[in-house]
Amino acid sequence: MRNIKIELEYDGTEFAGWQRQPNGTGVQQVVEDAAAAVLGHGVSIVGAGRTDRGVHALGQAASFRTEHRIPAERLPYALNTHLPSAVRVRAAADMPPEFHALRNATGKHYRYTLFCGDIAPAIGRRYATVVPPGLMLEPMAQAAVHMEGTYDVRAFRSFAKGQEGAGTLKSVWRVLVRGDGPYCFVDVLGSGFVYTQVRTMAGTLLLAGRGKLVPSDIAAIIASRDRRRAGPTLPPEGLCLIKVFYDPDPMRWYVPAAPRHWRA
Length: 264
Fold this sequence. Notes:
Shape: globular
CATH architecture of the largest domain: 2-Layer Sandwich
Oligomer: single chain
CATH topology of the largest domain: Alpha-Beta Plaits
CATH class of the largest domain: Alpha Beta
Helix content: 10-25%
C-alpha cells in the first residue's frame, strides 16, 4: 500500500472550508472525488489543517493511501484533470507508511492581506480585506513582536461547534508586518492555531495600526485570556495558508519571502 503526500493550492471563495460539509462543498470533497476518478477506488484524504470557509491556500498538504501504480510525478496532472479550476495539485510524492499529513505537521505559515489604498481593487478583491487608508505599519510591527512566544491563545480564539475542548497553549514563532504599495501583509508562523486565531491576531494588529492600542497592550490582552479584550476577527478572504512544515525545527532555515501584491 502506497502512502501519497500531495501539495495543493486553492481559491477558497466558493468552498465551505477544507473539510467535507453536509451543507456545502469542501475542498476535501472535490479532491477525494478527483482521486477516486483517477485511481478507480474511493480514498480518504487527510489534510494538514482545516481552513475555514472562504480561506485560501498556496501550500496546503494532504495524504492518502492507494495501491494504484501511477507514478507520483504524474498524479498532479491526472488529478487536476478532474478538479475544478479553483483547486490545483502542485506536487505529489511517495512517503513512508507512517507519514500522516496532520499528525506529522510541525507548524504552519499563514498570511493575512489587507488593502488600505484609496480605491479598492476590482481584480484581487477576493484575496484581501479592504480597510480605510492611513494604516500605520510601524506600530503594527512593534505590536506583532509581543505576539511571539508560547502562551495560552484564548484571547484570540473564537469558538466553533466541536472545537470547545481544543487545546489553547500554542507556540507562535514569528509575526511579521510588511507593506507593499497599498497592501499590508501580516505573516504568522507557529506550531498550530485554534479557530479564527490568525484572523483575530490580524484584527488586533489593525487596532494598533489605527492608534486604538499601543504595542505594549498586547501582553495584557494575552494575559487576560479574554476574547473581548482583543481586536475583531477579520473576514476570511484575506487569509491564506502559505506553507505546512514537517521539519522538526523549520525556523532554522525558513525565511518568509517578502510578499508582493499582484500588481507588482
